[in-house]
Amino acid sequence: MTKAEQALETRERILTAACEVIADIGFEHVSMRKVAEHAGVSKALLHYHFDTREKLFAEAMTHSFAKTGTDTGSDSDADPAAVVLARIVNSMLPTDEELRQDWKLWQELWVRALRDGTARHLAVDLYDQLHAWVGGTVERGVASGEFTDCDVAALGTLVLALCDGLGIRLMLEDPRVDLATARSTVWRAIAPSLGIAPDFPEV
Q1: Integer angstrom CA distances of residue 142 from 111, 145, 152, 186
Q2: SS3 116
Q3: What is the dihedral of CA 166, 167, 171, 176, to 10 degrees?
């Protein structure tokens, strides 16, 4: 392994550890020492890659988003747009342990974004990427004739708003909202605009 490869591997390990620690105890309780210990690196090496907690947090959020925020399956271009959109909805909800960890990070970001301009810009940028992700899939479905023509931007806003609201209820383990209810609620809300069946597809 070259020095450059080793540095990338170390950076990846630190970011993974930071995501896990922040999700576990919250950013306000995170110290650089705790992240370094969890990553199995020295505090000096951690500071070499990330000189402040704030930079580490921002990079951890981006890292987490890059890992789970673009996964729509192994061959999404060949799959029906409705199936890909359903996978996107799935990934925007806390449907497994990895996504529950991501949700905890998002919740930390929301809190910080209320008080910190840098965190607010990061949150808006990540939402822009989510809008583009949803919008690109909808546009593909419209172009292929699978979806009826619609206001793509408005539909993207609706999907994100529903997933945020229902996702919080799932994270709180609200007995009124389970995963099946969350999925069907999103799908029934967007199906009329897309001209598709209101039943959530098999993904």
Answers
A1: 36, 5, 9, 19
A2: coil
A3: 20
pLDDT at res. 1: 77
List, in order of start, the domains of the chain with CATH numbers.
Answer: 3-61 (1.10.10.60), 69-194 (1.10.357.10)
Residue 72 has pLDDT above 70, yes or no: no
DSSP-derived secondary structure for 40-55:
TS-HHHHHHH-SSHHH
CA dist., res. 98 & res. 95, Å (int): 8
What type of residue is 162? L
Q: Tell me the angle at which helices 32-39 and 3-25 cross, rounded to the nearest 10 degrees.
A: 120
User: What tens digit of pLDDT does each residue of 127-148 get?
Assistant: 999 999 999 999 999 999 999 9
Helices 117-144 + 152-171 axis angle, to 10: 120
Share of the chain above pLDDT 70, in %: 96
CA 118 to CA 121: how far, in whole Å?
A: 5
| pLDDT given for residue 65 in this prediction | 87
- Report the mean per-residue pLDDT for the chain: 92
Q: Which two tokens stand for residue 192?
A: 């009329």
